[in-house]
Write a structure and sequence with these properties.
Blueprint: E1 2-4, H1 8-19, E2 28-30, H2 33-43, E3 47-51, H3 59-68, E4 78-83, H4 88-96, E5 101-104, H5 109-120, E6 125-126, H6 128-139, H7 147-151, H8 158-168, H9 173-180, H10 184-198, H11 203-213
Parallel strand pairs: 1-2, 1-3, 3-4, 4-5, 5-6
Helix pairs in contact: 2-3, 8-10, 8-11, 9-10
Length: 215
């Protein structure tokens, strides 16, 4: 994986914590978004843990650039955004751009390492505080969906739309299988097709799209 933060102490600390895990290897680091994109293109890590606020090129710019270069998504790299700021616009921007998760810098070691493992496995990883904000945002109403967002749902079957709603609600593949009374393999197939048809690069991005478009 790749650790990206402009503060050397934080970058070194995160790298040490993650590299101490038997199943996690820190292959490299970067101190801004531009370097992160170049290192990612060279090393092709499974996961990037990347700060949002950095000088020169920030994390949101890097996330968009990774997507533009085709380096982001299933079978490529997944991105966990890291910040001290629990602000709605950062959550929405990061997840809508394809981030697999969003962690606060005061997250516990267990939350941090668990999020990296979840992202590597293709799952969404959100801190409890961020998850609660997304739920509250959905319950309090959402903005009118754009024509472009609605067009991304056009090719979904009824069952795939149901799966997308359950992704939005935070259910795991196993929980979706139980809810729909189908096999886990069938759910994985549906999720893969949902991501492909909607152009989403992560479950979290699909959840944001569903929050804005599906009742």
């Amino acid at each position: 994986m790749l650790v990206v933060d402009d503060e050397p102490i934080i970058r070194a600390g995160l790298s040490a914590i993650l590299d101490s895990q038997a199943d996690i290897t820190v292959a490299g680091t970067a101190d801004d978004g531009a370097e992160a994109v170049e290192v990612c293109a060279r090393l092709r890590p499974d996961v990037l843990l990347m700060d949002i606020r950095m000088p020169r090129r920030n994390g949101l710019w890097a996330l968009a650039e990774l997507g533009r270069r085709g380096l982001l998504g299933p079978g490529r790299s997944r991105v966990l955004m890291l910040t001290t700021f629990d602000l709605d616009e950062y959550v929405d921007d990061a997840l809508a751009a394809g981030a697999s998760g969003f962690l606060l810098k005061n997250s516990s070691y267990e939350e941090l390492t668990g999020a990296v493992r979840a992202a590597a496995a293709g799952h969404s990883a959100l801190s409890p505080a961020v998850t609660q904000r997304i739920i509250e945002g959905h319950l309090s109403g959402r903005r009118r969906p754009s024509d472009q967002e609605l067009a991304r749902l056009r090719d979904l079957t009824e069952r795939e739309a149901d799966v997308l709603r359950l992704i939005r609600d935070g259910l795991s593949n196993a929980e979706i299988a139980d809810r729909l009374v189908v096999s886990l393999h069938t759910v994985k197939t549906h999720v893969s097709r949902v991501l492909t048809k909607t152009g989403c690069q992560s479950r979290a991005q699909a959840a944001v799209l569903a929050r804005n478009t599906l009742s």
